[in-house]
Amino acid sequence: MNQLADVIDDRVRNGENDTGVVEQAKQEWESAVDLLPQVICLLDSSGRILRINRTAEAWNLGKAQAARGMNLHQLLHPTCSDDDCTLRAFWLQARTHLQSGGQLAYRAEDPALRRHIEIVARSYRQPIGRWRLRRRVFAVVQIGDVSGAKRRENRLREQCAELRRQVELGQAQLRQARELTAQLLDAQEQERKRIAAGFHDGIGQTLSIIRLNLDDACRDLVEASATRNLLEQLSGKMKGAIDEVRQITMDLRPSTLDDLGILATLNWFAREFRATYRHITVDLEIGAGEADIPERLKAVIYRIVQDALHNIARHGCRAAVCVRLGLFGRTLELAIEDSGPAGGAGQAPANAETGQDLGLISIRDRAHFSGGDYRVMSWAGHGTLIRVRWPLD
Fold first, then answer.
1. Residues with Cβ < 8 Å from 129, sequence gap 6 or more?
2. In this structure, are 247 and 272 located in the same domain?
3. What are the coiled-coil residue ranges (predicted)?
4. How many domains are there within the chain?
5. Sign of CA dihedral 225, 226, 231, 237
6. Opening angle at CA 377, ends 376 and 382, nearest 5
7. Per-residue pLDDT at 223
8. Are 143 and 38 within 8 A, CB to CB?
9. CATH code, domain with 88
10. Cα–Cα distance between 189 and 195 in angstroms, integer?
11. Tell me: the pLDDT tens digits for 337-374?
12. What is the pTM for the complete model shown?
């Protein structure tokens, strides 16, 4: 309507102030409004329709001329007698709201129109340019068909729900896979424990008894002889075999882990590692008590430290390693930092198929499947930091 006023004002300024010109401008504007896909209504202060475009006829709402004098509820729901009709309630609310100069919107699926409609009502009280309607316009109402947009919205909502379902399914499968892998790792530890006990209680003890008998036989042979020399050589080889069985047993499952706990085991492992790899220094920084560490994590922590240090040892170069185990609030953190060239712990031989470091893959999997957060950071020439955090809640 503002555009109509502008057209009329322009023509008045140009001296075209005859009634025919004004009527022509009104007809041109009404023709343009009739082409809009929305139903446009001008309402008076009592909520009655003053003017309506011909889009109402395309919506099967009756002739535009016949709609004058109706209210919105009568126009859209001509046969409705329901006092609880949401459209009737909206218009009663809109009239009160529009009197303060605001606007109100209504959007709903209308079974009577078989459309999803959107109604926007705006208050309008100002005169229009130099041209005034004979009856003052109280409000402008726009009624649009948003069925297509609603269908797209519903499809998008369905797609989001399906995507959410797929994500939840994937998360459930991931949790199940982690639980199964954790059970597999636990079964592996139990099997290692059984085999280690078998080595210690079976082969280890048998070899020890044989060695004692060889030593006794050597002592019985007072004079030096070929037989005594042979027995002494066998005793030495037997000692080497016993040491090898003990090393295999400790690699499989150190008895200290079950007898004394993870802290004593880490101290033992650090001593053994330093004695074997003299070019590597290992420092332990323990900031947690034995009781602070859940039983389910003790074997995991030991295996991660074992894999990380063996990774470093494969380089064969000098390095300083610091192993830190601490409790921060309700989070247990294990950090292994080395000073090896280009990141010692992260530069061990890689898997030929994937190009990934096998030791780091093992550490990552143990961390993830035990519920930990795994991070590895490497700096060329400054070493590598492996950090695993477990929430204890």
1. 2, 5, 6, 8, 9
2. no
3. 146-180
4. 3
5. positive
6. 135
7. 66
8. yes
9. 3.30.450.20
10. 10
11. 988 654 445 444 444 333 356 678 889 988 988 889 99
12. 0.50
Give just the sign of the alpha carbon dihedral 197, 201, 202, 208. Answer: positive
- Rounded Cα distance between 270 and 285, Å, is 11
Does an H or E element contain 282, and which? strand 280-287
What DSSP string runs through 109-163? EETTTTEEEEEEEEE--S-BTTB--SS---EEEEEEE-HHHHHHHHHHHHHHHHH
Task: Tell me if 332 sits within 8 A of 392, measured CB to CB.
Answer: yes
Q: Say how far apart CA 292 and CA 270 lie, in whole Å.
A: 21
Instruction: Dump pLDDT digits (tens) for 96-155.
Output: 777 777 778 888 888 888 888 898 888 875 554 444 444 467 888 999 998 888 889 889
- What distance in Å separates the CA atoms of residue 236 and residue 380, rounded to the nearest whole number? 46
Q: Is residue 373 classed as helix, strand or coil in its secondary structure?
A: strand
Asked if 39 contacts 50 with a C-beta cutoff of 8 angstroms, the reply is no
How distant, in Å, are the alpha carbons of 254, 359, 360, 368 from that of 365? 21, 10, 8, 5
Do residues 284 and 317 share a domain?
Answer: yes
Alpha helices in the chain (DSSP H): 2-13, 19-34, 55-58, 72-76, 86-98, 147-198, 205-220, 226-252, 255-259, 262-276, 295-313, 358-369
pLDDT 10s digits, 202-253: 676 777 777 777 777 777 676 667 777 777 777 777 777 777 777 777 777 7
Count of residues for the chain? 393
Write out the two tokens for 207: 């070899």
